[in-house]
Amino acid sequence: MGLAALADAPKPESTTPPSHGPKGSGCDNLPMSEVLDHNTPTTPPAADPATAADAPASEAPAVPAPYVPPKEAQDLPPGWLYVESLDLEAQGVGHRLDGKVVFIDGALPTELVTANVNRKKNNWEQATLTEVHRESSQRVRPACPHFGLHTGACGGCKMQHLHHGAQVATKQRVLEDNLWHLGKTKPETLLRPIEGPTWGYRYRARLSVRHVLKKGEVLIGFHERKSRYIADMRECHVLPRYMSDMLLPLRALIFSMDARATCPQIEVALGDDVTALVLRHLEPLSAADVQRLRDFAQAHAEHKVQWWLQPKGPDTVHLLDTDVPQLAYALPEFGIRMPFKPTDFTQVNPAINQVLVGRALRLLDVRRDERVIDWFCGLGNFTLPLATQAREVLGIEGSDALVERSHQNYDANQATRPVGSPLAPTRFVARNLFDMTPELLVADGSADKWLVDPPREGAFALARAVADLNQNRELRGSWTPPRRIVYVSCNPSTLARDAGLLVHLGGYRCTAAGAVNMFPHTAHVESMAVFELAD
Fold it and tell me: Taking CA atoms, which of 96, 129, 193, 426 is between 20 and 30 Å from 219?
């Protein structure tokens, strides 16, 4: 399905959900406000999933059919290309008449374009758009002057030229395609895409810093498109407005410092009402430089700027001045406040995070008599809200430091809970979750529901342990698998891989899945999937 067809599919704002799911769909218990109409089509599979999954590994791959150009690609002037789709990097995809694939930076589906070829291989070419002869109806004017294909363009965004509704449709299609092609899995229901503000959403950023002698100035920003050089950024529309306005003052600050040549990075971490700036410095700062940092914070006191210094690795990060407000974000739906350090993992987009946590818990549908495990729990972003609903919660995380802070966050929130509404008993455990075994899984005990929120590497070891216990039930003992799993993913390919294990070997059905537009204007795809025990 091309982008034009996707853009015509029901949008989250206009879709009216049915009053109930189809009988036997496995979606009867999902909140209807979270799902698209059950008649909304997904990508038609090329073959039955069971047949595809059961195909012997030794079977010779089918010979691909000869490329047949679409009607729009026929009889074009020499050098013209018809753009058929977008790839995972938001590049337009077209074909030569002989079937060779051409990836075109800056091109959009349905467009007729010419492009300059930068790289050639036997069966594909890499090109950059030079002219649009027929423009897509989804093409829009980028808001940021640093976005584009020009020399020095910022590489932070890849999709500002595409209407935001089409961006979401593209990400939903990427999710569905990955689930089918990599996991041989097709969700029974599509969740409504989670969307939010498209500008000013980015509360986390790692900005490179470089003193450029030839220019006689300091550059601070993201890297240029496909380059190791830093873009000459003077504004950034995905940062909050006040943070964008701070870019030039930050450049002036670093240029004024004695250490201007030995400060390679500033990491931005914004809380609900605090601005944390982490300065990486390769040499000790002079007393004059420390005072310059303090003066800058004072000049931007309305945004509660606080400096953190990083002389070496991440474990050396510390506050310049300790008498400052605490960096934190809130989850108001659950009455939870989450303090964090600027080097801790937190979601880039706080507005989407609030919606994400709320949806995950509604889909999990935890009851007061249930035990829940939160895998890859981090600071407790999901764990603490789960503790407002469950009988007992276990949070498991790979980092000892995060486990310690999770304990602290739990204790702090428990101390401020309303009378009669305490958090459920909750334990946090540190463990290497990339080395899970069936024995460790059984030792953690049975749970009614799971929340899984892994990093980009996914949760392969966990899914494999579930599959092993399903295939070798004598290993279970008294252990029982969770009836429902909500899997939050930041990488659709590893989600698809793990979904394939859970569905084809683990005894689960994928009852729902949907995209999460955590990073508007980028090609990054976040998503969520629901798995129900089949028997």
Answer: 129
In a domain, 147, yes or no: no
Asked if residue 340 and residue 299 are part of one domain, the reply reads no
131 Rama class: left (phi>0) / alpha (psi -120 to 50) / beta: beta
CATH at residue 294? 2.40.50.1070
- Tokens representing 421 are 């509404």
Is the distance from CB of 495 to CB of 177 less than 8 angstroms? no
Mean pLDDT in residue range 443-456: 98
Contact 216, 534 (CB under 8 A): no
Q: Which tokens hold the place of 108?
A: 């959009």
Q: Could you tell me if 216 and 310 lie in one domain?
A: yes
Range of the structural domain that residue 282 is part of? 204-270+275-319
490 tagged catalytic:
yes
In this prediction, residues 329-350 reach a mean pLDDT of 97
* Structure confidence at residue 188 (pLDDT): 98
- What single letter denotes the amino acid at residue 273? D
Which residue among the candidates 154, 263, 377, 490 is catalytic per the annotation? 490
Tokens of 17: 């959900």
pLDDT tops 90 at residue 56: no
The overall longest dimension of the chain from CA atoms, in Å, is: 75
pTM of the model: 0.88
Angle ∠(108,112,114) on CA atoms, nearest 5? 95
For 98-125, b where at least 16 C-beta lie within 10 A, e where not — what string?
eeebbbbbbbbbbbbbbbeeeeeeeeeb
Q: What does the block give as tokens for 47? A: 């073959």
What whole-number distance in Å separates Cα of residue 492 and Cα of residue 170? 13
* Beta strand ranges found along 111-214 (DSSP E): 112-120, 124-134, 204-212
The verdict on 286 and 388 lying in the same domain is no
89 domain-assigned: yes
338 shares a domain with 208: no
Q: What is the DSSP letter of 33?
A: G
In sign, the C-alpha dihedral spanning 14, 18, 23, 26 is: positive
Backbone angles phi, psi at 442, to 5 degrees: -65, -40
Kindly tell me if the per-residue pLDDT of 371 is higher than 90: yes
pLDDT in tens, 79-119: 999 999 999 899 999 999 889 999 999 999 999 999 999 99
Contact yes or no for 151/128 (Cβ under 8 A): no
**Is 251 domain-assigned?**
yes
Split into its structural domains, the chain has a count of: 3
Same domain, 528 and 480: yes
